[in-house]
């Protein structure tokens, strides 16, 4: 049974998220070690910002949907509202760019759930699958979890339906999509062209619909860099066949095979790198595909290490990581004068949320830092947004050190009404 008297506030939630984010770059085998007295594992910033019990309570009572009105037919009902909210925020702050790519992403999960997937040969083989729409830098614009192939997807099939679903909320703009052979088909390219959206992707041989390209066996014997192409003038769809290390087939409703460029490849016969011809459609594809992989790379660098037995926790942790890397990309775009790498940006967020950016870590023989001493002078004296409120539990006043049930809603610390102005530097 839960504690019905449990309450929280904005500052507590920020502290809770900050500790989760900190565990990504300062990981310990057990989360309780952050509060141990042993100097080899104790983290002073964490233990001073929030007590272990308070953190465990947040960890235990965190919930993302109301079980009383849950949709039992939805396998991801417990997390659905949260995913919808994050999708909306990603779209609101999307720095609109022409080139977007669609690919799959994996959230690691090793428990039991009917939506868990296994993909052989992937860096993350077990987990939940996400379909993601991203720009070339890795900003996740939209994402959709895959719950299984239990439903029918119409004439476009699963791949085409995923593409149409991901772009449904995009603003009107001359977008150009790239995706791999799982998604590409002639009906999808035709549908996207009707919406004035360009698209290019690799295509499987069994989806060419008797396109009169040269036979694969004969074409594979032609010199490396050879190109064959065919244009459907009715639907304006171009199919290009290029002999690289193996035969690569591309289809597009907007790109062209010409002009031919050149690319470097290793020649075993000559024992050196050589230049071979490359169609322009392949060059465009390579330049714009890979945004989802870049986002995965950013997210996996400092992934939250704290785990729980709740099946939806990997979704929650992953979306927090996704939001953080999106925020970092926006920061890089609009704050070029003060560049920060991903780790520095993450640490800055953690320090700001913990409110310990200006405080040194004290040695263990020093009395423990109290909760109110973690409020930085910059926050305490800014005279913006400080309001008095009621606390469900008794706290110690930061000014006179006596017990009170009044708090500053912004600082999250106890303050009597007659101590409020004095503490905030208001005469």
What does this structure look like?
- The structure is a single chain.
- The chain is an alpha+beta fold and 427 residues long.
- Among the domains are: 181-288, no CATH class; 371-423, no CATH class.
- It has 13 helices and 13 strands.
- It has helices spanning 10-25, 44-49, 52-61, 77-92, 157-166, 186-194, 216-219, 280-288, 291-301, 313-334, 342-354, 377-380, 417-423; strands spanning 99-108, 117-118, 126-134, 140-145, 176-179, 198-202, 227-232, 237-243, 247-252, 261-267, 272-278, 388-396, 403-408.
- Strands 1, 2, 3, 4, 5, 6, 7, 8 and 9 form a 9-stranded mixed β-sheet that branches.
- Strand 5, helix 6 (186-194) and strand 6 (198-202) form a beta-alpha-beta unit.
- The radius of gyration is 27 Å and the shape is elongated.
- Residues 357-369 have low confidence and may be disordered.
- Give the fraction of residues assigned to helices: 25-40%
Radius of gyration: 27 Å
Average pLDDT level: 89
Number of distinct beta strands: 13
Largest sheet: 9 strands, mixed
Order of helices and strands: HHHHEEEEHEHEHEEEEEHHHHHEEH
The residue ranges in which pLDDT falls below 50 over 5 or more consecutive positions are 357-369
Large-scale geometry = elongated
Distance between the termini: 47 Å
Q: What is the overall number of helices?
A: 13
Q: Structural class, from secondary structure content?
A: alpha+beta
Strand content: 15-25%
């Amino acid at each position: 049974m839960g504690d019905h008297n449990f309450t929280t506030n904005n500052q507590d939630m920020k502290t809770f998220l900050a500790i989760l984010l900190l565990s990504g770059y300062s990981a310990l085998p057990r989360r309780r070690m952050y509060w141990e007295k042993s100097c080899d594992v104790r983290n002073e910033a964490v233990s001073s910002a929030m007590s272990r019990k308070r953190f465990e309570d947040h960890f235990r009572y965190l919930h993302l949907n109301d079980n009383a009105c849950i949709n039992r037919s939805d396998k991801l009902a417990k997390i659905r509202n949260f995913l919808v909210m994050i999708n909306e925020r990603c779209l609101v702050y999307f720095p609109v760019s022409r080139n977007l790519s669609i690919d799959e992403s994996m959230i690691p999960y090793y428990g039991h759930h009917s939506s868990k997937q296994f993909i052989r040969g992937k860096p993350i083989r077990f987990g939940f699958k996400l379909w993601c729409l991203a720009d070339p830098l890795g900003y996740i614009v939209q994402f959709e979890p895959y719950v299984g192939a239990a439903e029918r997807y119409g004439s476009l099939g699963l791949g085409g339906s995923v593409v149409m679903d991901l772009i449904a909320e995009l603003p009107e703009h001359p977008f150009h999509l790239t995706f791999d052979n799982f998604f590409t088909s002639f009906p999808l390219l035709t549908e996207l062209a009707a919406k004035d959206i360009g698209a290019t992707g690799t295509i499987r041989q069994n989806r060419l619909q008797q396109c009169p390209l040269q036979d694969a066996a004969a074409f594979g014997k032609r010199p490396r860099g050879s190109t064959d192409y065919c244009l459907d003038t009715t639907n304006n769809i171009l199919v290009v066949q290029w002999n690289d290390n193996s035969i690569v087939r591309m289809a597009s409703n907007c790109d062209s095979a010409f002009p031919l460029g050149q690319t470097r490849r290793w020649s075993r016969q000559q024992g050196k790198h050589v230049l071979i011809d490359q169609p322009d459609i392949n060059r465009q594809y390579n330049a714009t595909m890979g945004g989802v992989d870049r986002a995965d790379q950013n997210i996996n660098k400092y992934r939250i290490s704290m785990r729980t037995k709740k099946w939806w926790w990997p979704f929650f942790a992953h979306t927090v990581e996704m939001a953080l890397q999106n925020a970092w990309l926006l920061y890089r775009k609009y704050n070029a004068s003060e560049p920060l790498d991903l780790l520095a940006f993450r640490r800055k967020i953690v320090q700001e949320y913990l409110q310990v950016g200006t405080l040194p870590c004290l040695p263990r023989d020093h009395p423990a830092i109290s909760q109110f001493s973690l409020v930085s002078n910059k926050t305490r004296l800014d005279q913006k947004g400080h309001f008095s409120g009621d606390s469900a539990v008794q706290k110690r006043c930061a000014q006179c050190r006596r017990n009170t049930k009044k708090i500053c809603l912004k600082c999250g610390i106890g303050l009597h009404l007659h101590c409020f102005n004095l503490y905030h530097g208001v005469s």
